[in-house]
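Please go through the sequence and C-alpha cells given here and tell me how the chain folds. Record follows.
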Amino acid sequence: KMFYLVLLLLISINTGCKNSSNPDDYNLPLPALKDSIPYGSLGQGKIVFERIGPLSNNYDGGYVIDINNHKSWGVHNGVFDGPSISPDGKLVAFAQYTPPPANSLWDIYSVNIDGSNLQQITSIIAQEHCPSWSKNGDYIYDRATEQLEQLYKTALSSHISTLVFSTMNMESPASVALDGRILFSDYNNIIVWQNNSLSTIKSDSIQSINLYSPCYNPQGDKIAYIEATTDTLTFNYKIIKVIKMDSDGNNSITLVELNMDANYNWEGSNNTSLCWSPDGTKIAFNKPESYLCAHIYVINSDGTNLVQVTSAEGVTDRSVSWGN
C-alpha cells in the first residue's frame, strides 16, 4: 500500500491550492455531458457521479443522469468528492475542503439535486469523506480520519454529529441497511457493524486482491462488491469482478469479470465504487479503462445485460450513487 500512500500525498499537495478557495467560488457551469447515455437500459431513478478531467481541462464536478426523464446535468462545479444521493433523490451529499478560518479541514456538504442551496453539514475537526445515507434519509454517515478511522452519523435536521464506531481502516463508504447494520471494507475484509460490535463476513488476504465498496441491496438480504486484482509491481488493475452474495457472506457468485491493464488513480478512497438501483434489480459500478480514465457501467443483479453508461474520452468517472 506504500505506493498508494505516496501517490495520495503528491496529489493532495497538487490539489491543495485548488481546494483552498471558497466552495461558492465555482461559478462556471460544467460542460454538458456528451456521452451517449443508454437510458432505455438503465431502469429508473437518478444516477449521480463525480467526473475528473480530462487533463486538458482538469475540472472536477458532479453530474446527474435522470433516467426517467432522459436528461442529464451538472449538479456542482468544483471538488465533489464521493457524492451520495439521498434515498428520495432530492439531495446529494459530498465532501470538500472547508477553507480557513474554519479548522475542520474536509467536511460533508449537501446540495439540492438541481445544484442549488449548498450547505455545510458537518464541522468535525478531521478529514471527512465518503458520505452515505440512512434508508429514511434522516442521517448522513461519513468516515472521519484522525488517528483511527471513525464513522460518524449526522442528523440532517440539526447537523449534530455522533460517533458510531472506530476502526483501523475503512476503504469505502458505509452501507446502512434498514435494520441498522452497517457494512464497509478495509481493502482485505468486508466487515459489518451490528449490535455494537464489528465482525468480518468476507476476507481475502492475497496481496494482489482488494475488496471494494460493499453495498446492501434495498432489501438488505444481498451484498454486492468489487474484487480487484492488481499487478504487484505496477499496481495496475488486471481483473475486476462484480460479486454478489447473501448478507451473511454465503453463496457468493461472480456477476461479471472484466480483464484490463489500467492505472487510473486519483486522490481519494472512492476510485472503485458500486451501488444498487433503488429497486434492487440493477447494479452500477465504475470500471478503469486506461491511465486516469474510468467509466460507469450497469449490469442486472442476475449478471445479465452489461451496458456502458458513460463514454467520454480522458475522464475518470467514479463515486457512483443511485437514488429515486
Summary: The chain has one helix and 24 strands.
